[in-house]
Design a protein that fits this description.
10 strands, Purple Acid Phosphatase, chain A, domain 2, 253 residues, 5-stranded mixed sheet, 22% strand, alpha/beta
Length: 253
């Protein structure tokens, strides 16, 4: 059995199409798990949702930005450390809110309903292997990610009660392969907005056979500049914020 894992597409249709094309070249898969953050930031929110919804044998998880779209909540405001940061707070909040409002304006009601109804996690129990659990951030929250710097004690607390052999996740936009006690944690990276210094779209495959799981993390290139050009053409309110991250594959300091 092969499971493809995609996460953090963020409205980036060219990146998604590149991943799906490469996956087909690799022989396809039995299931596709899409672990949240589907529409916000990129120029193609509706098209991404249409493409994902049309996939066969898919499972979805709700990400934090999907939840923000569905509930009207917004990301937590950054803590202000000095007066210079405070002076720019209004423009940051305006850009943040305009970003979500723009995305909502691209979506029909059916996609609001779709995002609202996405589950927090997916679970697959495989005889001879054990349980695979998929979440967006971590088992405790869609806003709490698992990082390379996360301590063993914190990770052990996050995994407590989850009872899985393999946890697949996203949210940090950075690939990760980490084992602790009897569990393995895989972050496949971001399809549409990588932040690990590599602009190429990221995804993962899980090949399960004879009670074992072979994990592979993949990268595939696509035309990043065309996505930024589309943001500009559409008058996206956060084109500079999104564009800089697409170009750098990092969060600018």
């Amino acid at each position: 059995m092969r499971i493809a894992v995609l996460v953090d597409v963020h409205g980036n249709l060219p990146a998604l199409e590149a991943v799906l094309s490469r996956l087909e070249d690799q022989g396809g898969c039995d299931e596709i798990w899409v672990l949240g953050d589907l529409a916000v930031f990129g120029p193609y929110p509706r098209q991404v949702l249409e493409r994902l919804a049309a996939l066969p044998n898919k499972r979805f998880v709700q990400g934090n930005t999907d939840r923000y779209l569905a509930t009207g909540r917004r990301p937590p405001q950054q803590l202000v450390e000095d007066e210079s940061q405070w002076s720019g707070m209004i423009s940051l909040l305006e850009e943040r809110d305009a970003n979500f409002l723009w995305t909502i304006g691209q979506l029909e009601y059916k996609w609001y309903s779709f995002l609202s109804e996405l589950p927090f996690q997916q679970r697959l129990d495989l005889p001879g292997y054990g349980s695979i659990v998929g979440v967006h951030g971590s088992p405790v929250s869609d806003e709490v990610g698992i990082w390379a710097e996360t301590t063993d004690s914190d990770l052990r607390e996050m995994l407590s009660g989850t009872e899985c052999r393999l946890l697949v996740c996203g949210h940090t936009h950075r690939p990760l392969d980490r084992s602790l006690d009897e569990a393995r944690v895989i972050n496949v990276g971001s399809v549409g907005l990588p932040l690990d210094g590599d602009r190429r779209a990221a995804y993962g495959t899980l090949d399960l056979e004879r009670g074992e799981c072979e994990v592979a993390l993949h990268r595939v290139g696509y035309d990043v500049e065309s996505v930024i050009d589309k943001l500009t053409e559409l008058g996206h309110p956060a084109v500079d914020w999104v564009g800089s991250r697409l170009r750098l594959a990092a969060s600018p300091k």
